[in-house]
Amino acid sequence: MVEKAEAIFKEFREHSIAEFFKKNRQMLGYAGKIRSLTTIVHEYVTNGLDACEEAGILPDITVKIKQLGHDHYEVYCEDNGPGIPKTHVGKVFAQMLAGTKFHRFIQQRGQQGIGATGCTLYAQITTGKPIHVITSTKNGKVYEVDIMIDVKRNKPVIMNEKEYDGDWHGTKVRGEFKEVTFNWSEYGPGEYIRRTAVANPHAKITFIAPDGRKITYNRAVSVVPERAKPSKPHPKGLTIDDLLEYAHHSKERTIRTFLVKTFDRMSNAKADEIEKLTSIDFKRKPDSLTWKDAEEIIDAIKKVKFLAPSTKELKPIGEKQIKKAILNVLEPQFHAVVTRPPSVYRGGVPFIVEAGVAYGGKAGRVVGDSVGAEIMRFANRAPLLFDAGADVITKVVNEVDWNRYGLKKVDTLPVSIIVNVVSTYIPYTSAGKQAIADIEEIHKEVKFALMEVGRQIGGHIRRERKKYEKQTKKMTLLKYVPEVAAAVAALTGDNKKELEMKLVKMIEKKYSGNGADEEEGEEQ
Amino acid sequence: MVEKAEAIFKEFREHSIAEFFKKNRQMLGYAGKIRSLTTIVHEYVTNGLDACEEAGILPDITVKIKQLGHDHYEVYCEDNGPGIPKTHVGKVFAQMLAGTKFHRFIQQRGQQGIGATGCTLYAQITTGKPIHVITSTKNGKVYEVDIMIDVKRNKPVIMNEKEYDGDWHGTKVRGEFKEVTFNWSEYGPGEYIRRTAVANPHAKITFIAPDGRKITYNRAVSVVPERAKPSKPHPKGLTIDDLLEYAHHSKERTIRTFLVKTFDRMSNAKADEIEKLTSIDFKRKPDSLTWKDAEEIIDAIKKVKFLAPSTKELKPIGEKQIKKAILNVLEPQFHAVVTRPPSVYRGGVPFIVEAGVAYGGKAGRVVGDSVGAEIMRFANRAPLLFDAGADVITKVVNEVDWNRYGLKKVDTLPVSIIVNVVSTYIPYTSAGKQAIADIEEIHKEVKFALMEVGRQIGGHIRRERKKYEKQTKKMTLLKYVPEVAAAVAALTGDNKKELEMKLVKMIEKKYSGNGADEEEGEEQ
Predict the structure, then answer these.
(1) Of the candidates A65, A153, B20, B322, which lies 20 to 30 Å from A441 by C-alpha distance?
(2) What are phi and psi of B433, to 5 degrees?
(3) How confident is the model at residue B101, as a pLDDT?
(4) What are the sequence ranges of the domains in chain A?
(5) Is the ipTM of this complex over 0.95?
């Protein structure tokens, strides 16, 4: 057995995270040629929007896709963000798990520090070529460089560095990819960008497709959205391990000030309350906390009441903005939107659900010659096109009884159902970031949001239907006016023309108005 | 803008893979208290079975779960595998992306080198405690140790090492976990182990539950399954990048011998054919290959015909063994199984689909008082309990028209539908390894397999129904025998008793046999 064990472990190796994702690239969204191209566009657009938002800039993003050969494309993406300091460019594009987003409690589209490096990796393994980056922070200098990734070490390889004068800010990235393909389906980059426009009415996005089509989504609103700020973790969401990690990195002098400064809703009074429930002297240094101590503190926290996590750092799109975006992009016959009040999952992570329904116009999904319903899922405004089956939003949409809201056979209607989940931490089911895990609290909020827009749109539809029914009755009655007038005239000897006019006036009067006012009270 | 960019990038950090999975633990299956406990059992059982298989040992696995408090459990797992050499124990249990499985083309349950370390991480962040490991390779020494993980560095921390005399082989691991819970649902460890027994008839598995219940699944077959061996990659599945990586690590002297030795189905004749299609001198050293050269070779490979990948290294459970396992565990009224011929996806990865259907007995899923259908999904014999919605097997099961096979309202029947996908590389949708990606070739094979077992079981059911109908007719007729006999006796004066006996004999004769033989030909 010794030899067997030794023989087996002769094969023992250590691998880098880049090797892991190279082998398991479907986990990053590189599965299928269309999805792969959409993933690349997603990563670059997401980074551009996040960067603009963090710097308080109205985003102006251009995406251009050019076909170079069979399953072979060039993707170019340009943003007017703050730019990337020279020292960080390599790591942003060619080192996994490096970034500004991973460790902060902040609401952003990206959150893992993997995406852009995934693109570089995919370019490299399909074409052997580096990606090309031009960036400037408006410091008078433009930095231009080719970047590859040393997969075994998960480190950037910098080539052909250039630096020259220039006076702008932003980032331009260009990469060449094989094993990708473009189409106009609901999974393609075009749809990705259309949905991005719906959820980001403050962004101007220009898309130039391989067939030369140029689509521009202009800003529907010109206000820079408030910058999302990092929020403090809430005590109720803390594990013992978290608490220890924060404590051991704290520069505060006492456990007491450490608690008050580090956590959300932790007042001096609350810290006192906790101290009394434990055997720990809160004047000790925070880095002296042991697992045992931390366990005592967490147990005490469970017994103490706290205000729910502050949600002021969550930035939903907002009902007004969603309305504008829907009108701008979908031009629907009617629509309804709602932004739910903030809620909390896992005890400590705040989130907000927003939903909208658009009916008619350009809403819905074109299937061949006919139109059907489409579900537009978003996480922190980034569209989720794939893995719909694993996503909590899809599950809830399928649970809602749309019949109740006048949307019978909703699948066959020109309807767009829009849901955006906003949070400092979106619980994705995988690194591909395409499905939100089915967590009870999120499930419930999505359901409430959809029921609310359902009721609103149901009202519209009911009114519309009554209007239509009235209109039909009126038209039917008007059709018989000449005959009825002739018959009455023959009987009474009255003037036929006059009778006709009187009858028409009677009908017009009875069926005037928008046709549903009198029964308005019926709605709930 | 300079200051803004600098300010943003002041937050730039680098993280380890362990930090990544600590934050995103739902990606490893740590989402929900039941799923988390099942994930732990899954990782340990999988490692035990893989180790036994690789060493050619009939597995004898014991899993014991003990409740220590509210949402607080101890998991103990013991296997009789070859044991782990002392120098590797730390890395096996506390270093992510280290292992023997990641880089080889071999059919095993585990394939990523993350699982066992994930358990250590979860023990650590929920209880602050190390896991305890005892192992021996039958070298006369037993090694016992406590292991934690240095999350920031993704390195093992070894504590309380002991070494003493002993004469056995195997590994025992014990860990303490919080934020986990046990139940007997279809997502719990009990169900996980039941399904493992179905797919591993050669394993003896003992499960001791927190409530003291002890369940033993005895071996249904006592033959050690053939050891899965690493297979060579097939040329048609190669990317340029793969080819370069193999070439740069090759010890062969020429490109020609490198190609012939490294790849499946690559004969000397094929290598010659490829050389002629390129401008490359195949007497050059393999590590001299450039991207351009490799591109030429891959283009040439596309033009050359190869035999399909050899599949002799794939080890399905086998129809006979599945039958035995089904009878052993599910004791069904009838059943059908099929092992499909090997197939290939992505051009180069071989796989086999096996399927079974069991009806009646202990088959199906108990829902309250009634029984319903259950889908048992397996990947290389490891049960997949979660993320059913994202899995290709679930999709296909839902696509199959079970009515055609006499399984009307299949959801409500006592049916277990079993599918095992066997491959050197299972394309999981995420690191949680619970769903197989919907890849066209796999989709098709699963469908064929299910249609085949459907037809078989359909035959059984049709025969069974006929038998039942016959039986019913017979009983009805027998019921009237006394009356008929009495009436006839009154008419003819014959002996009533004799007439009765004659009538019964006639009926018995007509409705003898299993009742369906005469129409056997009807089946397709």
Answers:
(1) B20
(2) 50, 50
(3) 58
(4) 17-217, 235-303, 319-457, 461-522
(5) no
Give the per-residue pLDDT at B108.
Answer: 62
DSSP B350: E
Map tokens 């209880």 to a residue. Answer: B127
pLDDT at B107 over 70: no
What pLDDT band is residue B520 in, cutting at 50, 70 and 90? very low
Q: What is the DSSP letter of A221?
A: -
Q: At what angle do helices A86-94 and A115-127 cross, to 10 degrees?
A: 70
State the pLDDT at residue A513. Answer: 60
pTM higher than 0.90 for the full model? no
Number of residues that this document lists for chain B: 524
CB atoms within 10 A of CB B343: 19
The torsion angles phi and psi of A250, rounded to 5 degrees, stand at -80, 145
Out of A23, A82, A431, name the one closest to residue B5 (CB).
A82
Residues 6+ apart with CB under 8 A from A298: A238, A239, A240, A243
> To probe the interface with B, which of A2, A121, A168 has the most B CB atoms within 10 Å?
A2
* Per-residue confidence (pLDDT) for residue A462, from 0 to 100: 80
pLDDT digits (tens, 9 = 90+) for B138-168: 999 999 999 999 998 999 999 999 999 999 9
In CATH, the number for domain B319-459 is 3.30.230.10
A8/B55 CB distance under 8 A? yes
Residue-by-residue DSSP string for B454-509: HHHHHHHHHHHHHHHHHHHHHHHHHHHHHHHHHHHHHHH---HHHHHHHHHHHHHH
* DSSP symbols for A128-159: S--EEEEEEESSSEEEEEEEEEETTTTEEEEE
DSSP-assigned states of every residue in B31-87:
-SHHHHHHHHHHHHHHHHHHHHHHHT---EEEEEEEEEETTEEEEEEEE-S----HH
Query: Looking at domain B235-303, which CATH architecture does it have?
Result: Orthogonal Bundle (1.10)
How many contacts (CB atoms, under 8 Å) link A and B? 209
User: Which pairing describes strands A60-69 and A204-208: parallel, antiparallel, or unpaired?
Assistant: parallel
Q: What are phi and psi of A297, to 5 degrees?
A: -65, -45
For residue B237, the chain A residues in CB contact (below 8 A) are none
Q: Per the structure block, which two tokens stand in for A115?
A: 């995406």
CA proximity to A45, closest of A219, A190, A255: A190
Look at the domain A319-457 and name its fold: Ribosomal Protein S5; domain 2 (3.30.230)
DSSP B384-421: E-S-GGG-HHHHHHHHS-GGGGT-TTGGGSSEEEEEEE
3-state secondary structure of B427: coil
**What average pLDDT does range B199-221 have in this prediction?**
94
Q: Which CATH class is domain B17-217?
A: alpha beta
How far A88 CA sits from the closest chain B CA (Å)? 8
Instruction: State both tokens at B16.
Output: 């380890």
Contact present, B162 and B26 (Cβ < 8 Å): no
Is residue A136 within 8 Å of A170, Cβ to Cβ?
A: yes
∠ CA(B340), CA(B343), CA(B349), 5° rounding?
135
> Can you give the pLDDT at residue B163?
96
Q: What percent of chain B has pLDDT over 70?
A: 94
Residue whose C-alpha is closest to residue B474's, from B515, B414, B522: B515
Same fold, B17-217 and B235-303: no
The tally of CA atoms less than 13 A away on the side-chain side of residue A337 is 21
Question: Mean per-residue pLDDT for B70-90?
Answer: 94
Residues of B in contact with A435 (CB under 8 A): 390
**pLDDT band, very low/low/confident/very high, at B100 (cuts 50, 70, 90):** low
Please give, rounded to a whole number of angstroms, the shortest distance from the CA of A333 to a CA of chain B: 34
Nearest-CA distance B83 → chain A (Å)? 6
Helices A440-492 + A392-399 axis angle, to 10:
40
* Residues of A in Cβ contact (< 8 Å) with B130: none
